[in-house]
Amino acid sequence: MRNDPFMRTYSPRQQAMARAQAQQQPAADVRPASDASGAGVLAQYLVESEPYYRPVADEVELYEAAYSVRMPIMLKGPTGCGKTRFVEYMAWKLQKPLITVACNEDMTASDLVGRFLLDASGTRWQDGPLAVAARHGAICYLDEVVEARQDTTVVIHPLTDARRVLPLEKKGELVEAHPDFQIVISYNPGYQSLMKDLKQSTKQRFGALDFNYPEHDVEAEIVAHESGVSIDVAKNLVHIGERARNLKGHGLDEGLSTRMLIYAGSLIAKGVAPLAACRVALVRPITDDPDMRDALDSAVTTYF
Ligand SMILES: Nc1ncnc2c1ncn2[C@@H]1O[C@H](COP(=O)(O)OP(=O)(O)OP(=O)(O)O)[C@@H](O)[C@H]1O
Ligand SMILES: [Mg+2]
């Protein structure tokens, strides 16, 4: 499926699987990415149908302005509040391909920029997702960038300042970024520790857009649209979410996300009783503390 988000997401595991698959193919079928035309390489990364995105403030206009000057952008906000959906929507709106990289601490610079592969006809270079995006002109979205080690993150530095280049050191090539190329990272301000944070020299290369859970009516609209429940049920779910968010720092590490409210709504829309749906989708995942579960259960029974 071309528009499947999984297909647009790189991970070292996926790359390893793809490498193994490529090695099984006859050598003649394997072409170095740099030989192919940009349009061909990027076709699979185009967001073909409009993703549903409900603007919350002026983030769409601000992003468009940032893209027009190719400013690297950092999307900041808690889990499940719409960052990934927003970047997919913007890529669709701007008609630019979107290459998403799920960052993790095992990721190396080679996973981003590329590596030499050995096959039947010898060694050949394979661009990593960052190199593909820079060379051919896509939006490269590094999701949860703080998970990557700092020595991996610094490879984006020359792309995120006035130089806009990507040195492929192992290959001895300097890729000049395509005019359409832009880099976007996501960052959850609550999660980093002293050991795991972006360097100032990385942070200061980005403009930042703050994301948060939308205000009541907007969030209810999103929950109703995404899950298929009525607006009244969605409003009740949002009330429960707001109650739980007030417990953040008082026993809960993180508030209930919009994503969780949508999960609960989806179960209700499938005919699951609201109490059971909320327990499964809202209460049980976020806490194991019996008192906290009781407090959340009673918030649920207030509204259902
Ligand atoms: N403004 C919005 N418009 C439309 N849908 C939204 C909006 N905000 C949140 N959503 C819904 O919430 C879900 C979760 O959002 P998303 O996956 O974008 O979160 P995220 O901020 O990327 O989270 P994480 O940090 O965990 O990756 C989306 O799948 C979408 O259904
Ligand atoms: Mg996301």
Walk me through the structure.
The chain has 304 residues and is of the alpha/beta class. The protein has 2 domains: 5-210, 3-Layer(aba) Sandwich (Rossmann fold); 216-303. It has helices at 5-8, 12-24, 38-42, 59-68, 83-94, 109-113, 129-136, 150-153, 200-203, 216-227, 231-246, 258-269, 274-286, 290-303, and strands at residues 9-10, 73-76, 98-102, 114-119, 122-127, 139-143, 165-168, 173-176, 182-187, 207-210. The strands form 3 sheets. A 6-stranded parallel sheet has the order 1-3-6-9-2-10, with helices on both faces. Helix 11 runs antiparallel to helix 12. The chain is elongated. The two termini are 39 Å apart. Residues 1-7 and 24-35 have low confidence and may be disordered. Bound molecules: adenosine-5'-triphosphate and magnesium ion. Adenosine-5'-triphosphate (ATP) is lined by residues 52-54, 56, 77, 79-85, 186, 188, 214, 222, 226, 258-259, 262.
Bound molecules: adenosine-5'-triphosphate, magnesium ion
Estimate the helix proportion, in percent: 40-55%
Strand order of the largest sheet: 1-3-6-9-2-10
Q: What's the CATH topology name of the largest domain?
A: Rossmann fold
Give the terminus-to-terminus CA distance: 39 Å
The residue ranges in which pLDDT falls below 50 over 5 or more consecutive positions are 1-7, 24-35
Q: Mean of the pLDDT scores? A: 89
Q: Which geometry do the CA atoms define?
A: elongated
